[in-house]
UniProtKB/TrEMBL annotation, chains A, B, C, D:
<feature type="binding site">
    <location>
        <position position="338"/>
    </location>
    <ligand>
        <name>Mg(2+) 1</name>
    </ligand>
</feature>
<keyword id="KW-0460">Magnesium</keyword>
<dbReference type="GO" id="GO:0009045">
    <property type="term" value="F:xylose isomerase activity"/>
</dbReference>
<feature type="active site">
    <location>
        <position position="103"/>
    </location>
</feature>
<feature type="active site">
    <location>
        <position position="100"/>
    </location>
</feature>
<dbReference type="InterPro" id="IPR013452">
    <property type="entry name" value="Xylose_isom_bac"/>
</dbReference>
<feature type="binding site">
    <location>
        <position position="231"/>
    </location>
    <ligand>
        <name>Mg(2+) 1</name>
    </ligand>
</feature>
<keyword id="KW-0119">Carbohydrate metabolism</keyword>
<comment type="subunit">
    <text>Homotetramer.</text>
</comment>
<dbReference type="InterPro" id="IPR036237">
    <property type="entry name" value="Xyl_isomerase-like_sf"/>
</dbReference>
<feature type="binding site">
    <location>
        <position position="267"/>
    </location>
    <ligand>
        <name>Mg(2+) 2</name>
    </ligand>
</feature>
<dbReference type="InterPro" id="IPR001998">
    <property type="entry name" value="Xylose_isomerase"/>
</dbReference>
<feature type="binding site">
    <location>
        <position position="270"/>
    </location>
    <ligand>
        <name>Mg(2+) 2</name>
    </ligand>
</feature>
<feature type="binding site">
    <location>
        <position position="306"/>
    </location>
    <ligand>
        <name>Mg(2+) 2</name>
    </ligand>
</feature>
<keyword id="KW-0859">Xylose metabolism</keyword>
<feature type="binding site">
    <location>
        <position position="267"/>
    </location>
    <ligand>
        <name>Mg(2+) 1</name>
    </ligand>
</feature>
<feature type="binding site">
    <location>
        <position position="295"/>
    </location>
    <ligand>
        <name>Mg(2+) 1</name>
    </ligand>
</feature>
Length: 436, 436, 436, 436
């Protein structure tokens, strides 16, 4: 029985590029096969519970704009919210969703009550998931909104907060496992500092390293086979967050012996905030062997905070999915829309329209990327550019069979005077524009 | 015999805070003892040859503004430059200088000729150093200005450029060793990319890792006891540089097994470009155990490129030296002014005035930092803030003696509900303002 | 009768630079005379009601951290808030405060009820002001928090919102006049756009121009003698705000014939967000003749949003007050702390400490600026730099008595080949460092 | 007779979207009619002489990478450069070019010699233009590269520099008029400041206002009918430039009585540097009535300086041309590529490929924009959004027929309580994605 929230809106169907129906897909045809795989299996779309169902539309200078019948602090509200959520998942035909504990149940008076409520909602979810076939891409714990976490969760100066956070994550992993979640995500929104004047960075990094090791040990102990993912973000809410970007997370994982256990969930908006492009962060994760999943939501380049908008720039998305495909595509990861409506987008239809547009843009981007790969449009010139490294002597240098003196001696002996060759950037950019 | 370039300017002396003589130190008294060490031994000032003697005053929209008698491409010019340089070092009373190969000798027609010229200048330097007592803080190779390096040095798609760069660094380390340099620096101005479309990041990182290993092996082989330093910078000249910031360099060193061999030379301006404060980068290096040296020149916060200005904001510098002192102070490192005059500062006197102001500001900053340490002004509140971690149970959590389930069980059993405590940021900022 | 909120804290006194009492002034001695005026009369400090009393400590990723007994939606809460506010004003010894309607009274169910509540609080304020001698620097209307303003107030696509906003401002000006406010401020937090796709910029600018003309006409009609001030801010909350920066506001005022009627309230944080330094915005306002007042709160240079921190960098503040003094000092304006505690600064004492530190830093900055003016430390070199413009021919060029051809003819006739002179930036920066 | 520089490359032809020929147009069909006008007449493409023929490929950390046979300081070199330039214009089939005096002739030993050389090149250009039909979109003077301008041209503290700049501009306008240039551009690369410590901003603005008035007077006197254009840029090379952005230029023009005489040449890259989107600057110019022309070259969003890259993001360009078309399209203005090759793009073919890709992307953008206009895809929802303002009472408010009190009285009388409506941003973004 429908909640009626979306009125008489019908499930969104693929109608092809010429459709002008705002509630149809023009590019996302779930069953279309690209590079030997269905689009649905490539893209593995997920809806984010928090922005789409829990966010009231506030910003730092204004309060709630959205009026949702499920806003309220009771379990009835929480269940209504779940009902509407699964209706949206089904209308869109997305295979996955993601949630924080705090998104789906009202906070209880005690830890125990909060946990009990989460379990009760998990029961409710299980029924919904069975009926709709929608799956859980990842679960996560909100360790940043409650004032108890204001000075950090794992990195708090108070060990009781560390313990409280640990207990919270344990329970959220339990629930994620029960719901067959394919990943578990940690975003350290408060794991960082506001001022170094009151912060012992070395100690806090050790706390965070310990925390993550506890999580990984627990995962193995209970047989949770999903991937543990860290979501890097440089700042906001804190002035500085320890999981700054992909490269920083990699160093952190190495320091605490976790580089084989943990991967990254990369968000376009967070890449931008860290001064990188999205494809940079994806390429870095590929190079370092820690690519996991993506949050496909964009930031406004002119705003210095996380605007979490639905993606829409197809050329940028093509370059992002090109990196995803170069890395072999998603394994347990997927394309999560960690995106919120603009706070002026008040209508139920806006919720659907936003996802439809985002999914369509992703589908176009992925298809363009796949075609570039099939055509070797970029890889053929790339191979040619590095071809010199295939020589015996070059291989020997790279593998460590030559010392600095040996190389220097060869430069002198052969009178090596390298001549630069064109990098052809404009040509390659034009090539990409053939595909997008 | 003087070149006469600085006219009748006398050596710069310490005259105390009330002096209005622009060519006197008001705060830098080399022999003043702070925390048991002379200021000169704390600060270990170095003048950068390139900006101060080789830079012609150009910018992307304008050419040379400085008219120096030593500008020219002959060895006579190079020696005149050296003579004036050592006059400036002596007038200032700085203990150190730093240089790139390209700063001190004209490029030759071949590698061999360039090397021979460098050797000849090194002879000249040896004489000057013996006479003046000025020492070499570090040497380095310019692997970024010549067009052969336009697509990278170690990370070039052409292995011949890798080889050429290797030969260059070998020779520069030889010269640095001969001149008793206390460090050798690598700044990877072209080790990065302009576009991912023509770049294989994983391969280029491997090239860079191999290159650095070659350098470290060579250092040990020839018994060079100075420190190998990487200078992080996020971008400029390339769109993205691999040595982005301290945390990124740390991950890179771990990946290539070099975290015990290589340290970082941190520049304030580069910290800013990477979205960090200078003290953040210093604290990070301390936390990760790779702090080496500093380039104490500031960037304009409103300009998105490296403005390399002389430092002058004492409160910022106090926080920077506070981190340096927390890490135990400089070992082989020092305070290099990688700073250039504004291109409108045409006069010989401007060269002196800029260094005097920078050195004075550093001295004020360091003395303020030292006093805060003596007074435990920040460390006492810090210890109190983390005091909870001294309990037996907290220590057990941090050391790994408790599992996630054990911690969760304790939260449940004890009904832990942490209460937040004030972070007192404004109080601590006011405390700092007592010292600066 | 005290509310007891601040316990037994005594009024903050001036104790001189050597005091280590966190609740004493070290530099702000209200009666100290500088450039012929008392410090209190120079600085004209005001406390901002909103951040200090109404802000709950939330951020985009977390809720309330502050627990204040006056948080609540009743008039009793509002009066308790006022009582504590005036206690803080008196403990600090500040001469002024500022408020929005929404800060001081709970929103009513209707416009009329909201207005009645504001009037009732104004009565309460009148009593408090009479008793304490604290005055109103400026009043303002909150036209950005309520969802009715989500798409703009004056610039809303719905003319009813324009009307509602007009009625609100009318009432707030009435109250400001009654309370003898010395200025009335308009900050257009929603006067801008999220996307040009749904925005008619030309029309919205016309709406805003009309609105401001209505306000100015009304001011004159009722005999309100305070200054009307616009507070520029480039963005946040909206993607783009029409009152971007001082220069943009100037153009807007010219377009709508208001450049003699309206001045600017310049906030350091907003200057930074617009890519300017604070002193730039102040100098611009002086050059354009529209300087009014300041919001003396800083932004973090590494954060892309308005962090509204208490000021603490004395060198920066000296440069800011130097511009204020160059412009003749405040007339009706003053130094408002549009600053909020960090959300981790939970204690009542933090409220006091933050203001004390800010006021002290302002006092140091102003005194340094005053001394530079007395010594002509910067103005003498400046006059020398432009001295060439005192020649007869130069004056004739500038006043328009020479045509382009005449000037060109003189260049040819005299063979003019200008020789550049040093701009001496480092020297001048060192001079400033003598004072701060 | 061909210089042979471009080998046997044939003129670039339109081959349609399926072409994979890198030297064919896929979208730019000059004769295609859109909105009643040929594409060539809509887009009015121009090649920039400086980047394409004069720039050696240097950056702040590296020297020349390009090796062009015309690099050199003789008039023979200058003429060879011109010959190759007109070959490129013809191969591309662009209707226009633009130049600075300094791009086209070597600087002479005196003003007179420089002028004579420019005249000689202008003769050469006249012949080329007659033969090829290529026209001059605009001329301009380089008042920023020579060291005499290091502290400003019109805003220099030395009135002799003002005079020298005035003479230079006079001559460049004469030449532009002779070559039938359709506009004359002023970009104030040195009209700004490095530090306020040595700058009198009010005086310098007056100097700049006088300078521009001299130019406008001269234009009328000699009957030059082209448009005078200012090119806004916020900074770089100077820390702050007075022509910061479109809104700032508007205020400046109003202050000096020039808002009807001067328009703006808007560059995408400069918009970005000022914290705006390109379409924002275009919409602002339309709203303020000063739109003139565009420099269609993009900046890298992750680089804080002017990267001047060829445009390639079609969705962004569609939004830009949408604003151009909304403003009625170009009058005397056009689409100038103020874009430079990446310095690694060494080959002659790269010069062609870059322009071909840029022109194609512009054509796609313009065609998408035109189609959106034809379909009223955005304008119909926009009209609906503001429809409330068509009511009698709303019009009366906007026209000034209602006072603040009257409006307030109506709010009270009618009990106006506005209800917000969805802004539909995601819907509109999806609509745009149908076209790009
Ligand atoms: Co985000
Ligand atoms: Co995310
Ligand atoms: Co630098
Ligand atoms: Co450096
Ligand atoms: Co603010
Ligand atoms: Co403010
Ligand atoms: Co540009
Ligand atoms: Co331009």
């Amino acid at each position: 029985m429908s909640t009626g929230y979306f009125g008489d809106i019908k499930p969104v169907r693929y109608e092809g590029p010429d459709s002008t129906n705002p509630l149809a897909y023009r590019h996302y045809n779930a069953d279309e096969v690209v590079l030997g795989k269905r689009l649905e299996d490539h893209l593995r779309f997920a809806v984010a519970y928090w922005h789409t169902f829990a966010w009231p539309g506030g910003d730092p200078f204004g309060g709630q704009t959205f009026e949702r019948p499920w806003f309220g602090e009771t379990m009835e509200h929480a269940k209504l919210k779940a009902d509407v959520a699964f209706e949206l998942f089904s209308l869109l035909g997305v295979p996955y969703y993601c949630f924080h504990d705090a998104d789906v149940r009202p906070e209880g008076a005690t830890f125990a009550e909060s946990a009990k409520r989460l379990d009760e909602i998990a029961d409710h979810f299980e029924g919904k998931m069975a009926k709709t076939g929608v799956k859980l891409l990842w679960g996560t714990a909100n360790l940043f909104s409650n004032r108890r976490f204001m000075s950090g969760a794992a990195t708090n100066p108070d060990p009781d907060v560390f313990a409280y956070a640990a207990a919270t994550v344990k329970h959220c992993i339990d629930v994620t496992k029960r719901l067959k979640g394919e990943n578990y995500v940690l975003w350290g929104g408060r794991e960082g500092y506001e001022t170094l004047l009151n912060t012992d960075m070395g100690r806090e990094l050790d706390q965070l390293g310990r925390f993550l090791n506890l999580v990984v040990d627990y995962k193995h102990k209970i047989g949770f086979t999903g991937t543990i993912l860290i979501e890097p973000k440089p700042q906001e809410p804190t002035k500085h967050q320890y999981d700054y970007d992909v490269a920083t997370v990699y160093g952190f994982l190495r320091k605490y012996g976790l580089e084989k256990e943990v991967k990254v969930n990369i968000e376009q908006g967070h890449a931008i905030l860290a001064g990188h492009s999205f494809e940079h962060e994806l390429a870095t994760a590929n190079a370092l062997g820690i690519f996991g999943s993506i949050d496909m939501n964009r930031n406004d380049y002119q705003s210095g905070w996380d605007t979490d908008q639905f993606p829409n720039n197809v050329p940028e998305m093509a370059l992002a999915y090109y990196q995803v495909l170069l890395g072999g595509g998603f394994k347990t990861g997927g394309t999560n829309f960690d995106a919120k409506l603009r706070r002026q987008s008040l209508d139920p239809e806006d919720l659907l329209v936003a996802h439809v547009g985002g999914m369509d843009a992703c589908a176009r981007g992925l298809k363009a990327a796949a075609k570039m790969i099939e055509d070797k449009a970029l890889s053929a010139p790339l191979d040619a550019r590095y071809a010199g490294w295939n020589s015996t002597e070059a291989k020997a240098m790279l593998s460590g069979e030559r010392s600095l003196e040996q190389i220097a001696a060869r430069v002198a002996a052969d009178g090596i005077e390298p001549q630069p060759k064109s990098g052809r950037q404009e040509y390659l950019e034009n090539v990409v524009n053939r595909y997008v």
